[in-house]
Design a protein that fits this description.
By secondary structure, the chain is α/β, with parallel strands linked by helices. It contains 15 helices and 16 strands. The chain has a 7-stranded mixed beta sheet with strand order 4-12-11-10-9-5-8, with helices on both faces.
Length: 462
């Protein structure tokens, strides 16, 4: 490292430590709660993800309503994280609150369907195109099921993913290409899974690499987001989706598109907006307004391939075949009631229009401040989702992100934002608007972003 690089790193460390000290002063009750939580939970909180905030410990939430949350120290935040998309409907939307309140008094789960599920099946096909649907408890479960089905109908073992991807707790996707070598991503520790046996990995937007990986005929499915959103946002290259669809069909490989984040692009996600044709479509997180739920849907051809192996009805069998996926709580009455409320009353066309408008304003002001102050950063926006990245141009793939990403600067931004009353996704620079986001919320973010730019500009660490 050069002397200038070392000096910059030292300055960033000093700024982070100052923001974390300010965070501790502002959050004494959360700090005490964190100390208590560490006595009982494996990693200090109910989920180990909850420790992954830049303040040094998580804030403990008292209430959340609309686009705002309040912690137990009485501090208010504008929430652009929204539960890393799980709360894209906003917090405690009235329609969902009423639906789950009504349903909980009638039973939460019976491992039997309710009539609301009939409406949901029809609505999902209206939004995403005609499909045969299954409900799960998460997008992770939906992805696992989709992979299992792909292996069942193809007889193949491998899953092709793109470097930098994230598809939940799916072992096959916990890999990345770094310095030309395949390894585990995001500091995930090995757990004896032989990724050479189950995974192939290439860079996003590289259709030639995809085609080469499919030649051997051992890839059951390609699993991808329409736009990569979990490694910093990586836009899709012109023509890539059509080429991907063409090469997977020629290779007999199932194409799975995971819309869990890109559901922020509209009522039918990126798939409906751009006319994509996945064999299996997956979504989760926001689909039930924060109640644990996911979905996956097979097109007609894929469903018929599965039915040839496991018929949907077999009158000679008293017990139906177990397909190796599911869950006792999957498709439970409470989740179904919440999902209907979301699809019918919350994530509607008018709601999306407002979300898009606010996202465009937020991204526009951020771009203006970046240009005005000649900062080597950029902003990407798709639908209601915005990404601020500390690199001068948009990445084409995971390798570009690895080469250009500045994790210490991201950490400083997250800590500074929380101290200034703004929450964004803690893993990188992603923001999301919801139906309850207001113009005042967007303006306040712009003011905080301007102050952050001034802080790092004066320190010389842009």
């Amino acid at each position: 490292m050069t002397p200038a690089t070392l000096a910059r790193a030292a300055t960033l460390e000093r700024l982070i430590e100052a923001e974390q000290a300010r965070f501790l002063r502002l959050h004494p009750r959360s700090a005490a709660a964190w100390r208590e939580g560490r006595r009982h939970f494996l990693y200090g909180a109910p989920s180990h993800w909850m420790r992954r905030w830049a303040g040094g410990f998580p804030v403990y939430i008292d209430t959340a309503q609309g686009a705002h949350v309040r912690d137990i120290d009485g501090r208010d935040y504008i929430d652009f994280c929204l539960g890393d998309t799980g709360a894209m409907c906003g917090h405690a939307p009235e329609a969902v609150t009423l639906a789950v309140t009504k349903q909980i008094g009638r039973g939460a789960t019976m491992m039997l369907p309710t009539e609301d599920s009939l409406w949901i099946g029809a609505e999902l096909s209206r939004r995403f195109g005609p499909r045969y649907w299954t409900l799960t408890t998460s997008a992770t479960d939906a992805n696992r099921a989709a992979i299992r089905i792909a292996r069942m109908i193809t007889g193949r073992s491998k899953v092709l993913v793109f470097s930098g991807c994230y598809h939940g707790g799916v072992d096959e996707a916990h890999v990345e290409i770094r310095d030309g070598r395949v390894g585990l991503r995001n500091m995930i520790h090995p757990n004896a899974v032989d990724h050479d046996a189950v995974t192939k990995i290439v860079e996003f937007n590289d259709i030639a690499a995809v085609e080469a990986a499919l030649v051997a005929g051992d890839v059951a499915c390609v699993l991808t987001e329409p736009v990569m959103t979990n490694f910093g946002m990586i836009p899709v290259a012109d023509g890539f989706h059509q080429a991907l669809r063409d090469v997977t069909r020629r290779a007999g490989t199932v194409l799975i598109i995971d819309e869990t984040h890109t559901l922020s692009c509209g009522p039918g996600g990126y798939t409906a907006l751009h006319g994509l044709e996945p064999d299996i479509l997956v979504a989760g997180k926001a689909i039930a307004g924060g109640i644990p739920a996911g979905i996956f849907g097979l097109d007609q051809v894929t469903a018929e391939r599965l039915w040839r192996i496991v018929p949907p009805v077999n009158p000679r069998q008293r017990q139906s075949a177990h397909l190796g996926f599911g869950g006792t709580l999957a498709g439970g009455a409470l989740a179904v009631a919440a999902m209907r409320a979301v699809l019918e009353e919350v994530l509607t066309e008018p709601a999306y229009a407002g979300m898009f408008s606010h996202a465009e304003r937020l991204a526009g002001r951020a771009r203006g401040l970046i240009a005005q102050n000649e900062l080597p950063w950029h902003v990407t926006q798709i639908g209601a989702r915005i990404e601020i990245m500390f690199m001068p141009s948009r990445p084409r793939n995971g390798a570009d992100v690895i080469a250009g990403r500045q994790p210490d600067l991201e950490t400083l931004m997250h800590a500074f934002y929380m101290n200034e009353g703004i929450l964004i996704t803690p893993f990188h620079g992603m923001l999301l608007t919801c139906p309850a986001t207001s113009s005042a919320d967007v303006d306040q973010h712009g003011d905080v972003f301007e102050r952050f730019g001034k802080l790092v500009g004066e320190a010389g660490v842009t």
